[in-house]
Write a structure and sequence with these properties.
Elements: E1 3-7, H1 11-22, E2 27-31, H2 40-43, E3 47-48, H3 61-76, E4 88-92, H4 95-107, E5 116-118, H5 120-126, E6 138-142, E7 146-147, H6 150-159, E8 164-165, E9 170-176, E10 179-185, E11 188-191, E12 194-197, H7 203-207, E13 217-225, E14 237-240, E15 246-251, E16 254-258, E17 263-265, H8 282-299, E18 309-313, E19 316-317, E20 324-327, E21 334-338, H9 344-361, H10 385-391
Parallel strand pairs: 1-2, 1-12, 2-8, 4-14, 12-21
Antiparallel strand pairs: 3-7, 4-6, 5-6, 9-10, 10-11, 13-16, 13-17, 13-18, 13-19, 14-15, 15-16, 20-21
This protein binds flavin-adenine dinucleotide (FAD).
């Protein structure tokens, strides 16, 4: 029986492992230096939506297929993942915000059925009064959008896999005659016919072993949680892009939220990604609280938005904001699934399905895998994370 080792039990690693097993790939072993969901996936805010339909214009019709698949996949995952189909709401606080962010969602040629414009009053009503009508000028609703707990979903997927090995750090790749033949781990060597690197912010550490590098910008991203204050669990996820990319949703009767004030490239913090897990950069929480608090008080006047807890992860951005899913040039049997662009919870199931096809068949008849290939980038083209940042398109 052939053996595939998946390195990383985040949402991407567990998703591809499931799809490989469904496709009859033989033995699939998932190893993680921590526990499933203990790194970036455990910090994810769990918004799952059709971002390619007007919100993020670097996503394409192919990405939209992955998104639709993600929505359906979580809907049918019978596990306690805090699944809620409350829709995704996009709101604006200014006329400019309405024109730049909300109208493209309403006018997008791929807008899902039921997409509708909302008045300021309707935004307030749909959020159960969380967003004050006086502070917004309107919005748009994708009624089919969902929200989940990203950590729970990752752990639920991992729990259904037959062979997950936590606290097993991969320290090297074993190769022979231009092909990968296994991995070196903290618990001994593992022979494999194929290896998938789904180890997020740590991908380049292992690729360095085979002299390859993918262009990734590792970003520290913060999610804040506020105390319970009677927020309704029927509230949609909310994006307020004109407040520096603010996103917020209900969490255990309170709110969880974040925006650009709580984000910084890892290189700006002079920090390393460490050995796995989540970063803890309190200065970003302080910056977020100081900068966003006055705007949030105006937008959400009736609820407690203070910081009672926070967590961070390391999403990885690519120069073109497209994912990385495909073979590593020059090393047979070695694949990468990464470059999540802070949208891995949404796209993870679809990327896992597509990459399983690529691993087993060399391609996919479902979604064209070529836009996600690693060799679309010159391996020497982005020598630093700063150069990736400089190349990244703005969200619109
Ligand atoms: C604050 C925040 C909010 C977000 N909100 C959303 C959202 O609303 N919607 C959305 O779609 N996405 C969101 N994201 C993005 C999403 O969380 C990521 O895209 C996704 O979790 C990335 O998954 P991953 O599997 O690539 O990485 P990870 O979850 O980091 O998984 C990689 C795994 O590899 C393991 N590993 C690393 N090195 C090794 C090694 N050498 N050996 C063995 N194991 C190793 C790590 O321990 C880790 O478990 C958010 C992220 C953050 C931080």
């Amino acid at each position: 029986m052939s053996v595939t080792v998946v390195v990383g039990a985040g949402i991407l690693g567990t998703s591809v492992a499931h799809h490989l097993l469904e496709r009859g790939a033989g033995q699939v072993i998932v190893v993680d230096s921590g526990t499933p969901g203990s790194a970036t996936s455990g910090a994810g805010a769990g918004f799952v939506g059709l971002w390619a339909a007007g919100y993020a214009n670097f996503f394409t019709a192919g990405d939209l297929e992955l998104e639709k698949y993600g929505v359906a996949y979580y809907r049918h995952l019978s596990a306690d993942i805090d699944y809620r189909a409350n829709g995704n709401l996009y709101a604006a606080t200014t006329g400019d915000g309405l024109r730049s962010w909300v109208e493209p969602v309403l006018d997008h040629p791929l807008a899902p059925d039921g997409t509708r414009a909302l008045s300021a009053g309707e935004v307030a009503e749909l959020t159960g009064g969380v967003l004050a009508a006086e502070s917004v000028v309107g919005g748009a609703l994708h009624p089919g959008g969902i929200q989940i707990s990203a950590g729970r979903a990752t752990r639920a997927l991992a729990a259904r896999l037959p062979d997950v090995r936590p606290f097993t750090r991969v320290t090297g790749l074993l190769t022979s005659d231009g092909a990968v033949v296994g991995v070196r781990t903290s618990a001994g060597d593992l022979a494999a016919d194929r290896v998938v690197l789904a180890c997020g912010a740590w991908t380049n550490e292992l690729l360095a072993e085979v002299g390859y590098r993918v262009p990734l910008l590792r970003m520290v991203a913060t999610r804040v949680l506020s105390p319970a204050s009677g927020v309704s669990s029927s509230m949609p996820t909310v994006m307020v892009p004109d407040l520096f990319g603010l996103w917020l949703r209900e969490h255990r009767g309170g709110l969880t939220y974040g925006n650009g004030d709580g984000y910084a490239p890892l290189f700006e913090l002079n920090a390393s990604a460490g050995d796995g897990g989540q970063p803890h950069r309190e200065e970003l929480v302080d910056r977020l609280a100081a900068s966003l608090a006055p705007k949030l008080r105006k937008l959400v006047p009736e609820h407690d938005t203070s910081v009672s807890w926070w967590l961070q992860g390391l999403p990885c951005m690519t120069p073109d904001r497209r994912f990385l899913a495909g073979p590593v040039p020059g090393v047979d049997g070695l694949h990468v699934l990464g470059g999540d662009n802070e949208a891995g919870v949404t796209h993870g199931p679809g990327l896992g399905r597509m990459l399983a096809d690529v691993v087993l068949d060399g391609s996919s008849s479902w979604v064209d895998p070529s836009p996600y290939r690693l060799d679309r980038f010159d391996p020497d083209g982005y020598p630093t994370e700063q150069s990736v940042l400089a190349a990244m398109p703005a969200r619109r």
